[in-house]
Design goal:
The complex is a heterodimer. Chain A is of the alpha/beta class. Chain A is built from five helices and six strands. The longest helix of chain A has 13 residues, at about 10-25. Chain B is an alpha+beta fold. Helices cover about 60% and strands about 15% of the residues of chain B. Chain B contains eight helices and seven strands. In chain B, the strands form two sheets. A five-stranded mixed β-sheet of chain B has the order 2-4-5-7-6, covered by helices on one side. A two-stranded antiparallel sheet of chain B has the order 1-3. Classes of the chains: A alpha/beta, B alpha+beta. At the A-B interface, helix 1 and helix 4 of A face helix 3 and helix 4 of B.
């Protein structure tokens, strides 16, 4: 069972991930944060520690890049793969994600059928740039 | 007495030589030429028109050296200055043009930035709701929240298909604008497996043939040399051509084959569809020009083939087709085995 943490301010997008969880009940378990307020503390306080962290980019008060830095700086989660889940997938934006050190990008809309295999590939250490 | 031949004064010859040398130093070639012609005519006139009187001729010689030579020097300087002024005016004019050009370029770059920002924001703003539209309708269609009847299922399928179409449209417009702006970027990898790409493409297009008596055949060698290129874009190329073949073919077969032809890998997509009418041929690769049958077919953005052409060209390949109306169309894509593209460094 894969523990997934998803930080996303858009309710529909969170619902899509919970839907994916329902479609793949034995595959993953999803925890969501509505915002990035107090992100570090809430991450550390999670009962089920995530195996992969999915971050929306345009989140307040800390955006995806800032949250990525927090994850990398933390002693307990610095090795957890962090994936951007974003609707901003122009060249420059994806370049910024690559250079910031994300393990991959999943573009919105998410691909319902391929999501599990993409997630598995990321967990296997592959960098996945699924931007269309 | 007029018209009497006279001995040419030695002074005059000195004058002619000196003034010509001076003129050539100070004036342009053309001006020197005019000056020399005028000068020569003037001297000739003096010689011919001067009375034979030695005294007067002697006075004329003096006149030259005390008045005419300085005067000529001044005239030549004035002409030269006038010339300089003209050059200066031209320089000012050129500077003005350069400034205007710079402003126009800045404005164009500015509007380019605005366009990019607009496209980026449009893409973002449309993709977020599409995430809900496409995925919620698929989820409902799967019947997880509760049973759906056949009509509901069809409608839900229609919602997700329409959402997907809208997404394709956004992607195509973004691609086309990147191509137009010259900012299309390939993420080049050195080990792209064509067999895998054909496999994925075939998988993607299967649903297009679900309700039609059309068989999809593939003939791809077990082992093929790996290509250098952008995996995703190469898939996009094959997918565009293959999905067109599947969309237009109502009966018969669509056949994908791959072969190595010299220093190229050739991908062939042959269909038994309606073919491309001669008058439509030149529009196949033109943006926003769908063929009549394409328009009737109702799906597609009119951008697929133009984008495909640009993507093939970006891979230093070629794409062309042969078509017999009523019998079918075959598209050929040649991709170089040895590519000059630089693979991205691992990140």
């Amino acid at each position: 069972m894969i523990e997934v943490l998803y930080v996303e301010d858009d309710a529909s997008s969170r619902a899509v991930l919970h839907m994916l969880e329902r479609l793949n009940p034995d595959f993953m378990h999803v925890t969501t944060f509505n915002d990035s307020e107090d992100f570090e503390r809430r991450l550390a306080a999670l009962e089920c520690q995530p195996a992969v962290i999915l971050l929306d980019i345009h989140v307040r008060p800390y955006n995806g890049f800032e949250m990525l830095k927090m994850v990398r700086a933390s002693r307990t989660h610095d090795c957890v793969p962090v994936v951007a889940v974003t609707a901003s997938v122009m060249n420059e934006e994806v370049d910024m994600l690559r250079h910031a050190g994300f393990e991959g990008t999943l573009a919105k809309p998410l691909d319902l059928e391929r999501f599990p295999s993409l997630l598995q590939r990321i967990l296997n250490g592959e960098k996945v740039w699924h931007v269309q | 007495m007029l018209f009497t031949p006279v001995t040419i004064s030695g002074y005059l010859i000195y004058y002619l030589v000196a003034s010509t040398v001076l003129a050539s130093l100070l004036l342009s070639v053309r001006q020197t030429f005019y000056f020399s012609v005028f000068n020569f005519a003037f001297v000739l006139f003096l010689i011919v028109a001067t009375p034979q009187t030695e005294g007067l001729f002697g006075k004329l010689d003096e006149l030259f050296f005390h008045i005419a030579v300085p005067a000529l020097l001044m005239i030549s300087t004035v002409i030269r200055n006038r010339d300089r002024e003209q050059i200066n005016r031209q320089i000012v004019e050129l500077q003005r043009l350069a400034e205007a050009e710079r402003l126009a370029r800045e404005r164009a770059e500015q509007s380019d930035r605005v366009k990019s920002a607009f496209l980026a924001s449009m893409s973002h703003e449309l993709r977020t709701p599409l995430n809900a539209i496409i995925n919620f309708s698929k989820f409902l269609k799967k019947g997880l929240p509760g049973p759906v009847n056949q009509e509901q299922e069809e409608l839900l399928g229609s919602i997700s298909d329409s959402g997907q179409h809208l997404l394709n449209l956004i992607n195509d417009i973004l691609d086309m604008s990147k191509i137009e702006a010259g900012s299309l970027r390939l993420y080049v990898e050195p080990d792209v497996n064509v067999r895998e790409i054909i496999g994925s493409a075939v998988q993607y297009v299967q649903p297009l043939l679900a309700d039609k008596p059309v068989s999809l055949e593939q003939s791809v060698p077990e082992t093929l040399p790996l290509l250098t290129g952008d995996r995703k874009r190469l898939l996009q190329i094959v997918l565009n051509v293959l999905s067109n073949a599947c969309k237009f073919t109502e009966t018969g077969c669509v056949r994908v084959s791959v072969s190595v032809e010299g220093d190229k890998v050739r991908i062939c997509v042959a269909d038994s569809g309606p073919g491309i009418a001669p008058e439509d041929r030149e529009n196949v690769f033109t943006a926003f020009k769908q063929t009549d049958s394409g328009l009737r077919q109702g799906s597609g953005t009119g951008l697929g083939m133009p984008i495909t052409l640009k993507l093939v060209e970006a891979h230093q390949g070629t794409i062309w087709f042969e078509s017999q109306p009523g019998e079918g169309t075959t598209f050929y894509i040649d991709l170089p085995l040895v590519s000059a593209l630089e693979p991205e460094r691992a990140q």
